[in-house]
Amino acid sequence: MDWSLTRRGLLQGLAAAGGAALAARTADGGPLDRLRREPGWVTGKLTGAQAIAESLKAEGVGCVFGIPGAQENELWDEFKARGVPYLLAAHEFAAACMADGYARATGRPGVLCVVPGPGVTNALTGLGEALLDSTPVVALVGDVANGEKYRPFQVHSLDTVGLLKPVCKCVLPVSDVRQIPDAVRQAFRLAVAGEPGPVAVVVPFNLLIEQAHFHCPPPADLGLPFDDAAFDRAVALLSDRRNRVGIYAGLGCMDFGDQLAAVAELLQAPVATSVSGKGCVSDAHPLAVGWGYGPHASVVAERAFKPDPLHPLRTGVNCLLAIGVKFSEVSTGFYGDPRPRTVIHVDANPNNLGRVMPADVCVAADAGLFLGRLLACGDVLRRPADVALQARIRQLKLDQDRHLCGIPPGRCGVDPLALIAALRRQLPEGALFLTDVTVSEHLAAEYFRVGRPRTYFNPVDNQAMGWTVPAALGAQRACPDRIVATLTGDGCFLMAMQEVSTAAREGLPVKWFVLDDRAYHYMQMLQLPAYRRTTATLLAHLDYRGLAQGFGVAYQEIGPGDHLDGSVANAVHFPGPVLVRVLTDYGDRKIRWVEAVRHRFTDELTAAQKARFLARIGARSLSPQPND
Ligand SMILES: Cc1ncc(C[n+]2csc(CCOP(=O)(O)OP(=O)(O)O)c2C)c(N)n1
Ligand SMILES: [Mg+2]
Fold first, then answer.
1. How far is 316 from 243, CA to CA, in rounded Å?
2. Which ligand has the minimum distance to the alpha carbon of residue 438?
3. Residue ranges of E strands in 391-471
4. Which residues surround ligand 2, an ion (CB under 5 A)?
5. DSSP at 406
6. Which tens digit of pLDDT belongs to each residue from 199-239?
7. pLDDT tens track for 398-411
8. Nearest by Cα to 366 from 227, 500, 221, 494
9. Is residue 513 lining ligand 1, measured as CB closer than 6 Å?
10. 411: alpha, beta or left, given left = phi > 0 and alpha = psi -120 to 50?
11. What is the rounded CA–CA span in Å between residue 369 and residue 375?
12. Which of 70, 139, 396, 501 could form a disulfide with 300 if both were Cys (CB 3.0 to 4.6 A apart)?
């Protein structure tokens, strides 16, 4: 018998006979139900927990990160029964960061599953990072019982929905078991639609054991935004040869690198990126200039956007084409990217347009669609090769390389910039590199060259210390065959180091490079010039070797006397997880981001505030203050 033909015939018959109603009535495990198991549908008589597991399978989920609890044991048991892959974290902050790391590495939603009360509150910081950094995460959150099962003073009975709302793009509370598949699957659509972000589905635990008949098709895709009229205005500006275009590309361009490079070539425009956008165009491209274009970021970018001293009659960039980017505080060095005469801002989220950098043309559009449509206008946009610009960018990059080769060895420890240079040389192009909230994150953003999309990650806008330790596990789980390495401050490490035990248990071969300076150097760099002393910035001595041994991972130590490249290569190519302690000496290493942000902050002080700051600095300079 031709099974598929018979099935199709049956379904056609059902439709002809007003099949929708019949389908709903007979979807109870009878013979028609079996015939109607379309791929991607959730069908049959299922409990709420089974419906969630089936919905996750229909979405092709690669891993659920989280921690079970009384409200969700039923669900975790169904993950196991139905083959939904999962990974147990040691802390829900870490689980949220793992889901975030998984999502950043793949572009697909990472999935988190936590209990109400402490599970949710622990996860908030990680969800906040995903929200501010536009990362698609789906959070499955259990809740206390509802409806007839509700009782007062249940365990974990904090306001789950209320807690999640400020850190999620959207929260979908479920009040009836029959809503479950649609809510879960809609969450996956919403998480990636427009500007991505975390979406939570909140399910009271009594619904997990209720049964219902399901016959749920996959939800429709939500479509891509595109403002045609604004696009035409943007093309008019870009085709005007008096406008020298520079491109500023963000995370929204991450999966459209080829189109972005082709548009840059068409317009002969230098391409700078935000921190989150690093990798959307290869730094090896002749028009790629690195992070930012202001005084806080890459020198290559800043100079490539300015007039060329060798060609004084040519203007610098006077028309900015910003695509898939928000101009947020950290990436712009406290809003320090200069505003060229004309600005075109393109973003999928209309609420981001022109918010920080006033724009002449705001285009609410998906970055991929926008770039594709620009390429279709090649005839009006194409400009001749700008040999001088490309030569200048090449020279600026060579100067930067030379600078990195000439870093003198640190006296008491390794200079973090030397470490970043060694990592840049030793990590293969496909490796994933995650930087934490150490002050060295800004050195890395400035100097680390990225060759491929989705290989460089930083918790940019929530700046959640400790993010790399678990986020690297999520990324490694998503990309088991790639090398995954982190740049983690010792303060950051202390916030999440328990997840090293998770890596050991799961055999996830992450390499954590921990900058051990026994201090919050970031805070010291901010405090010392302003207060002439440091406060609450010293950390305890840690026995990293003992920790590695205790957690069950390999250990490597890198000190000032060691061969840096050789040591980095050793750790990078070790087949298992490695905790690398880098004895760090910041010495008087200057960091452009810190300097630029200080200047901007000081500029914005009122005269009275300036006077107060200066008086304090003056008084403390006369009577030297003890540091920490
Ligand atoms: C959860 C959290 N708490 C506090 C801060 C404020 N903060 C930012 S950086 C930093 C210190 C980072 O120190 P460390 O990890 O040792 O890096 P270093 O700069 O010393 O290399 C602190 C306390 C933060 N960003 N996140
Ligand atoms: Mg430190």
1. 10
2. 1
3. 432-435, 456-457
4. 489-491, 517, 519, 521
5. T
6. 999 999 999 999 999 999 999 988 999 999 999 999 999 99
7. 999 999 988 887 88
8. 227
9. no
10. alpha
11. 10
12. 396
